[in-house]
Design a protein that fits this description.
By secondary structure, the chain is α+β, with helices and mostly antiparallel strands. It folds into three domains: 128 residues, Immunoglobulins (Immunoglobulin-like, Sandwich); 92 residues, Immunoglobulin-like (Sandwich), CATH 2.60.40; 30 residues. Strand 17 and strand 18 form a beta hairpin. It comes from Oreochromis niloticus (Nile tilapia).
């Protein structure tokens, strides 16, 4: 049985010698089954594989990504090919391999995603002779490990995590994040608030999905109460989405209007009492002096 799966059955007789030496147990691929792709943006399809040739340099490997079960045109079904002249016209300059084939990495990038780029797409690899670049009998299409793209015409909205209430004069932290599938051209997260205290994190959440986080920290004032804070995500290709929340600031009570007049009143009273005491002592001493003089005169 021919398990090569590269050619229609009517080619099997002429290629029986090629097919007979290849076993599917020796050729394996790990490709995500489906992945979101934002139209006008880009998508990266993670892929790894193993083959019968052991560790080989890139010059000995020829890579292709092709449509599955689609009638080929003059360029075949290749959305990517190591020979750029064999790529379908509507995929020219839009696909490339990101991984090193010599390290069994078949990761594919598609840019300027179109709404008809849904696939399914399968990876194919051939081992070639270095002297003339002709294929050998070692070749395989991984038609049981293909990827389908879930076409998104609208960008995903950011998710915002924030404490319900901020306190006036105290640091306040809010996190904005968005999921994407193009780590080569990550979305840009921005705020409608001027702050230099912003930290950006990138996270791989598996199966081709990535997350970017923007962590904003600022100190709200009384004037920021009921202010709308917006996080905007701009994706490769220009599409944008945003999420807004209303900031509620808990005011810190200000008792200065009570404390200051009270302090002034107390200070004035103390000063008045001190003056009175001073004056009383002064007049008492004066009276005593006058009485003393009057006693001397009577004698």
């Amino acid at each position: 049985m021919c398990i090569m799966k590269l050619f229609p059955c009517y080619f099997q007789n002429s290629l029986s010698a090629i097919c007979s030496s290849v076993s599917s147990d020796e050729w394996k691929a790990n490709v995500v089954k489906s992945i979101d792709a934002l139209v006008t943006s880009c998508v990266v399809v993670p892929c790894s594989f193993s083959h019968t040739g052991g560790n080989l340099p890139m010059s000995r490997l020829r890579a292709m990504w092709e449509y599955k079960d689609k009638t080929p045109d003059t360029k075949g079904n290749n959305i990517f090919h190591s020979d750029a002249t064999l790529i379908k016209d509507n995929f020219k300059d839009r696909t490339k391999m990101l991984g090193e084939l010599g390290q069994n990495n078949c990761t594919l990038e598609i840019t300027e995603v179109k709404d008809h780029d849904n696939g399914p797409f399968c990876f194919r690899v051939e081992l070639v002779r270095t002297e003339n670049n002709d294929p050998t009998k070692d070749m395989f299409s991984f038609v049981d490990n293909c990827v389908e793209l879930n076409m998104l015409t609208q960008p995903p909205k950011p998710a915002v995590i924030q404490p319900k209430t901020a306190t006036q004069g105290e640091p306040y932290t809010v996190i904005c994040s968005v999921i994407h599938t193009c780590p080569t051209h990550v979305p840009k997260l921005t705020w409608n608030l001027d702050s230099t205290n912003i930290i950006v994190h990138h996270k791989d959440i598996k199966h081709g999905n990535r997350e970017i986080q923007s962590i904003l920290t600022f100190t709200p004032e009384e004037k920021d109460d009921n202010r709308e804070i917006t996080c905007t995500a701009e994706f490769n290709g220009g599409l944008k989405s945003s999420e807004t929340f209303t900031l509620h600031v808990k005011r810190v009570e200000n008792y200065n209007h009570i404390i200051i007049p009270s302090v002034v009143g107390i200070g004035t009273t103390v000063a008045f009492v001190l003056v009175c005491i001073f004056m009383t002592k002064k007049y008492r001493k004066r009276i005593e002096e006058l009485q003393s003089r009057d006693g001397r005169y009577k004698k």
